[in-house]
Amino acid sequence: MTEETTPITFETSGMDNRLVSACNRLGWKFPTAIQQLSLSGGLAGKDLLIRSRTGSGKSASYLLPILNRLLKTKVSQRKSSQIINNQFHPFGIILVPTRELCEQVEKQIEELSYFCKNLVFALHIIADIPIQTQKTRLISQIPDIVISTPTRLALLMKQKIIVLKENLQVCAIDEADLIFTFGYSEDLNHIVTHMNRICQFYLVSATLSTEIEEMEKLVLQNPLICNIKETESNKLLTQMAIKVTEDDKFLLLYVLLRLGQLQTKALIFVNDLNKSYRLKLFLERFSISSVVLNNELPQNTRNSILENFNRGNFDIMIAIDENIEKKNKIIKSLGGDEKKKDNKKNKTKKKSKKEKEKNNKNDGDSDGEEDNNLTNEKQNEELDEKFLKKKQKKKKDQELIQNTKKDEEFGVVRGFDFKKIKTVVNFDIPKETTSYIHRIGRTSRAGEVGTVLTFYTLDEQDTMIEINKKVQKEFQQKTMQIVPNNNSIIYLPFPEKKVSTFRYRINNVLNSITKNLVKDARIKEIKREIINSKKLQSHFKKAPNDLIALRHDLHLQPNQINKNLTFLPNYLFQNQKVPEGVHERKRKKKNRKKKKTHKKRRRNNPLKSFRVD
Ligand SMILES: Nc1ncnc2c1ncn2[C@@H]1O[C@H](COP(=O)(O)OP(=O)(O)OP(=O)(O)O)[C@@H](O)[C@H]1O
User: Fold this and answer.
1) Cβ(325)–Cβ(183) under 8 Å?
2) What is the Cα–Cα distance from 208 to 480, expressed in whole angstroms?
3) 3-state secondary structure 154-202
């Protein structure tokens, strides 16, 4: 903490009463530590540099002062100054790294302005909407605050649709560290050099980097530095790591889930898309439902998944946290794979056609076999037709994957406000420390308890040590401590004894999930969610504030599930205590079955069912 302040409440902060009521309505009793620091400076119109751990309430620490400032200016005055020469001059802009965060910030503004709805209007602009439609929207609706990713805003500025020189009063760059890691530096520089620099500036970030320090010097004028020493949250987040082999990751996760040692709601991070579906299929084989969230899915589906996960309708979410560069590689490799396969198929088809022609020729040579020839021809035609149909289907699937453009503004795992996540599992170790920090920030939010479990292989041992060192250093340097034991990660031994008896059945299941099965599952999911997305769209039209609970966690290959795998016989536990509840369902079912057969037998036995009335 760099500046001493006396603790304030929302009521004594000097904020507009309607904003105070909105905080109370959300059940917020006191401002969080970072809000305590930032509110007074923000309300006084100072530039702020807000640095605090993920989940500490940073968004409201800049949104509340921005809204307060808006409420001080008359609506009519604001509106008239925002349209000049058919160009849009917003009062405020908020920059975030992903479209999910655009929507999240817009929603939070709606909640915080609950008691002054008609007076404040925020609009997020995203890449889906054509530029001209966006222009018409901005000019007709005249939002006070525009929320955008740097790329989209820079584009609209270059087209002279949005101008920031004259009217801009406030600008916030949220998740600034991510904005740089997502590669937005160029767009950000364009925005900053073409904006009114005497506006009030908020630079908000969970971690520090040289780029942020440079940006700080460039845009902030005599800023109030809000840095937080989070001693309280020390007790809330526990970080653990286990060294495992690649296949044992599946085994360990299964055992932890099955024995109830991994608390849900759980968010599981993997580094690539195919692996996420492999994990989903693996869990599905044991009747454990999960939902995969990735940037191939349509936007409506993603929103619905996130909303329903936050509402507690699914317990396990598998999320992909891949690099932007890596994403492009995957698209290419997928297209390449499919192409290679198609070439192979074409060759085999040509070969079989040649063989057929050869056979036909031979057949034709033999005397009196016209009938045979006819049936052969017919069979060949049928074969050809089948083959063509198969090929057409394959082509359609391939087109579907290639046309399902990955959303570059997607980054759900970072910065999104997940509610009540008990455990974050790094099934794959993140490649960078910043990514690790953002992943762990999805749990232990808003003062809640959370656990992080990281799996790492022998090859990743150095990365793990590096992450551990950097996390300690980062948090100590910035006077933010987030974990006990001197901020370090606790290394746990691999529980070989506990899991060894399960290894055989796990390996069997894993071997049955082939690459082709994973690909099919992925295609099936995309198809299903495209249909879901249409349903959701029509639903949103009727009830825009509602999100129906579509089951996004349905099994992808239900016919492959072996019900016996859900039963855990005692011998699997060797000398260990059988955890409570593991066999319960089976036993209950058995009893029910017994009663039923007993009744049936009685009914069929005339001596027992006979009655004299
Ligand atoms: N004063 C408060 N009292 C209780 N809960 C709060 C308060 N302020 C914010 N919250 C809640 O805390 C959660 C985290 O807030 P927020 O998303 O703003 O954190 P953050 O620091 O921006 O996290 P990240 O860096 O991950 O984006 C949200 O669910 C929010 O509703």
Assistant:
1) no
2) 11
3) HHHHHCCCECECCCCCEEEECCHHHHHHCCCHHHHHHHHHCECCCCEEE
Q: Which residues contact 22 (CB under 8 A, 6 or more apart)?
A: 111, 112, 113, 114, 115
- Coil, strand, or helix at residue 286? coil
Average pLDDT over residues 211-216: 79
How remote is the CA of residue 71 from the centroid of ligand 1, in Å? 22
- CB of 206 sitting under 6 A from ligand 1: yes
Tokens describing residue 301: 């589906």
In tens, the pLDDT along 442-459 reads 887 766 778 899 999 999
Cβ neighbors of 504 (< 8 A, separation 6 or more) are none
Highest-pLDDT range among 220-224, 243-247, 474-478, 579-583: 243-247
Neighbouring C-beta atoms of residue 150, cutoff 10 Å: 23
Angle at 139 between CA 133 and CA 141, to 5 degrees: 95
pTM of the model: 0.64
Q: What is the pLDDT of residues 538-561, one digit of tens each?
A: 665 556 555 555 556 666 666 666
- The torsion of the CA quartet 380, 386, 388, 392, rounded to 10 degrees, works out to 180
Burial of 396 from C-beta contacts in 10 A (0-12 / 13-18 / 19+): exposed
- As given in the structure block, the two tokens for residue 355 are 């063989």
Among protein residues, the one with the nearest Cα to ligand 1's atom 17 is: 417
Q: Extract the runs of DSSP E, i.e. beta strands, from 435-564.
A: 450-456, 490-492
Integer Rg of the chain from CA: 30
Strands (E), 90-184: 92-95, 122-125, 145-148, 170-173
User: Which range has the worst mean pLDDT, 77-86, 186-195, 198-207, 270-279?
Assistant: 77-86
Helix (H, G, I), strand (E, B) or coil at 268: strand
* Mean pLDDT, all residues of the chain: 76
What percentage of the chain reaches a pLDDT higher than 70? 65
The protein residue with its alpha carbon nearest to ligand 1, atom 27, reads: 415
Cα–Cα distance for residue pair 121/142, rounded to 1 Å: 8
Query: Is 97 a pocket residue for ligand 1 (Cβ < 6 Å)?
Result: no
Count the Cβ atoms, other than its own, within 10 Å of residue 539.
Answer: 16
Given a cut of 80, whether residue 572 has pLDDT beyond it is no
Residue 144, classified by CB atoms within 10 Å of its CB into exposed (0-12), middle (13-18) or buried (19+), is buried
Taking the mean position of all CA atoms in its chain, how far away is CA 236? 23
CA of 57 to the centre of ligand 1 (A): 3
Residue 61 parent element (H or E): helix 58-72
- State pLDDT tens for residues 115-167: 988 888 999 987 777 888 888 888 888 899 999 999 889 999 998 899 998 88
d(CA 609, CA 613): 12
Query: Ligand 1, closest atom to CA 52?
Result: 21
Q: What is the pLDDT of residue 105?
A: 93
Cβ atoms of 294 and 320 within 8 Å: the answer is yes
Q: Write out the two tokens for 90.
A: 């917003």
Decide if 224 contacts 61 (C-beta within 8 A). Answer: no
Q: Residue 244: helix, strand or coil by DSSP?
A: coil
At residue 333, the pLDDT reads: 42
User: What are the backbone dihedrals phi and psi of residue 84, each rounded to the nearest 5 degrees, phi first?
Assistant: -135, 125
Closest residue by Cα to atom 15, ligand 1, is: 57
Distance from Cα 439 to the centre of ligand 1, integer Å: 15
Q: Is the ipTM of this complex over 0.90?
A: yes
More confident residue, 566 or 523: 523
